[in-house]
Design goal:
- The chain folds into 3 domains: 6-84 and 247-271 and 288-454, Zn peptidases (Aminopeptidase, 3-Layer(aba) Sandwich), CATH 3.40.630; 102-233, Glucose Oxidase, domain 1 (3-Layer(bba) Sandwich), CATH 3.50.30; 471-559, PDZ domain (Pdz3 Domain), CATH 2.30.42.10.
- Helix 2 (27-41) crosses helix 5 (294-313).
- The protein has 11 helices and 24 strands.
- It is globular.
- Strand 23 and strand 24 (552-559) form a beta hairpin.
- The longest helix is centred in the middle third of the chain and has 20 residues, at 294-313.
- 43% of the residues are buried.
- By secondary structure, it is an alpha/beta fold.
- The structure holds zinc ion (ZN).
- Zinc ion (ZN) is lined by residues 296, 330, 427.
């Protein structure tokens, strides 16, 4: 939608003026500062800045030094710092044990507790094989039918379903583990042992990083090749002893007090993936290696520091400025989520929130993503006026997405999120400092400065709820190509923004920039049709893709 009116023309004029004023910044000095920040934050010494680890604390120390030098007012709970707790990983106590009449099953080899399990408990009982543990009244199917005296028994449940686990399965609505656990508890289960006899189905992950809330009974998985599946009515003793480990992350909060009524919040996360590994969000498959996170998000952190330096002496004094370097973002927006729930500054005074996450890779096509523009009526008209320097702006409406602005949007604060796009080094060790585009990052900073400047006299922005992209409509799928789609791509097909090492797309030789237009007979015109095409496949299927690379069309065989 494009609206031009007098107000807009006025705004555009203001913009021109502001940008030329912004250009009076010492460009060379800012670029040198950005480079200094990113070089340090993304160096080996910081070991990928994993939340709660030594590298995070070195980064914290550096950012505090910068905030102090600039003269920001500390606004954490302990000077600049706001600590937040988080749980990650488990310690399995020595008493964790699964024994039957014949043997003790080896912990972590033959069996392991699932995140659904209660933390501590011992159950002695007989085993009851309840097949898939599925009750599907609409389909007239009930694994518990005719089974009596189940109370207090240890239920053995096969994680597959009567017709397998493909997305075509009739039982999809009844077969997620949580539903089956609740059903089992309702039927009197004292503990659950899941097994897997279906080679096409992946074993459930022993992954306590996911935010799965525990149930009231021990829930474990035992390998199907272990001999316990032959028993019914055998006596078992099952003890789980799980301690969820607590760690501490650190937000860093500074303030510029202009004595104003409203406060603009700037946020960038400074944590990254550490050495990567299972459950970290890494797309790299190899031995543990430092994930440098130069673009993600040393770039945003550097921009945050330099914006703070600029704003400290800026003439735009109708707002105060809250400068937030968040941690725990990569583990699920932990730091910003904690901050909005335990604000060290009143949420009611917050005018709008500007989020910078990955702003260091403006490429030749100069595509800048500006997201969250549905969260205030002001954004659309503003965004229209900042197409300058050959920068092409792509916007998305939603206030909900994979970065810290989501936490603020959910508190009804207008948000805007700047992002120079994904790339092949995203969430890999190769996201290094030498690939940062400093003139590009400076352009992004200037756009933000001009935006803040033109909103200086506009008072508190109106908040609007955004239309959520219809994720509910998306079909479920059991396979993945291992790519990051370019969600902002508006041409025909699914454009690949990044390829995950060792996954089907990488094995098939697909590259970032490729556009997939067809999967077997299924035409792929957009993200929705791409997801539909994925939805009809299962692990092991081989498909032929039509792929556009540059001006060439290729046929590519891919096995899921
Ligand atoms: Zn990230």
């Amino acid at each position: 939608m494009y609206h031009k009116n007098l107000y807009l023309i006025l705004l555009s004029t203001l913009f021109l003026w502001n940008i030329s004023k912004a250009q009076n910044l010492d460009d060379a000095q800012i670029k040198a500062n950005l480079k200094q920040h990113i070089t340090y934050l993304a160096s080996d010494k910081l070991e990928g800045r994993e939340t709660g680890k030594k590298g995070e604390q070195l980064a914290e120390k550096y950012i505090i030094e910068q905030f102090t030098k600039i003269g920001l007012t500390p606004m954490g709970t302990d000077k600049y710092v706001q600590e937040f707790p988080f749980t990650e990983g488990v310690k399995l106590g020595k008493s964790s044990e699964l024994t039957d009449e014949h043997k003790t099953h080896k912990l972590n080899v033959e069996w392991y507790p699932l995140p659904y399990s209660c933390a501590k408990g011992t159950v002695k009982g007989t085993l009851a094989n309840v097949k898939y543990g599925i009750v599907a009244p609409r389909l007239g199917y009930d694994d518990y039918k005719g089974k009596n005296d189940l109370k207090g028994k240890i239920f053995m449940i096969n994680i597959s379903s009567p017709d397998g686990m493909s997305p075509h399965s009739k039982y999809t609505d009844y077969s997620d583990l949580r539903t089956r656990i609740d059903t089992a508890i309702a039927h009197g289960a004292a503990a659950i042992i899941f097994i897997n006899s279906d080679s096409t189905v992946e074993n459930p992950k022993n992954d306590f990083t996911n935010k799965i809330s525990p149930s009231s009974i021990p829930v474990v998985f035992a390998n199907a090749n272990d001999d316990l599946c032959v028993f019914d009515n055998a006596h078992f003793t099952l003890t789980v002893d799980i301690t969820r480990l607590t760690h501490t992350g650190h937000n860093i909060i500074g303030f510029i007090d202009n004595g104003a009524k409203n406060t603009v919040v700037f946020g960038a996360h400074y944590d990254h993936l550490g050495y990567g590994g299972e459950g970290s969000g890494s797309l790299y498959r190899g031995k543990p290696a430092i994930h440098h996170g130069a673009d993600d998000n040393a770039s945003g952190t550097a921009a945050l520091i330099e914006l703070a330096r600029y704003l400290k002496t800026s003439n735009d004094r109708n707002n105060n400025y809250l400068i937030c370097a968040f941690s725990g973002e990569e583990k699920g927006l932990l730091g910003s989520n904690y901050f909005v729930k335990n604000p060290t500054y009143p949420l009611a005074k917050m005018n709008y929130m500007v989020n910078m996450d990955m702003v260091g890779r403006l490429n030749e096509t100069k595509n800048l993503s500006i997201n969250g523009v549905g969260s205030s009526p002001v954004w659309h008209s503003l965004v229209d006026t900042i197409k300058r320097d050959g920068i092409k702006v792509k916007t998305t409406e939603s206030g909900i997405g994979p970065s810290d602005y989501t936490s603020f949007y959910l508190k009804d604060i207008p948000v805007i999120f700047f992002f120079t796009g994904s790339h092949n080094d995203y969430h890999k060790p190769s996201d290094t400092e030498d690939k940062i585009n400093y003139p590009g990052e400076l352009s992004v900073m200037k756009i933000i400065i001009a935006m803040v400047n033109s909103l200086n006299t506009k008072g508190k922005l109106e908040f609007t709820k955004t239309k959520e992209e219809d994720s509910k409509e998306a079909p479920r799928f059991k396979v993945t190509m291992g790519v990051i789609p370019d969600y902002a791509f508006d041409g025909e097909g699914m454009r690949i923004d990044g390829v995950s090492d060792g996954k089907p797309a990488a094995k098939a030789g697909l590259k970032s920039g490729d556009i997939v237009t067809q999967m077997d007979d299924f035409k792929i015109t957009d993200m929705m049709s791409y997801m539909k095409a994925l939805g009809i496949h299962k692990k092991g299927d081989t498909v032929t893709l039509k792929v556009k690379r540059g001006n060439e069309m290729k046929d590519v065989k891919l096995t899921f």
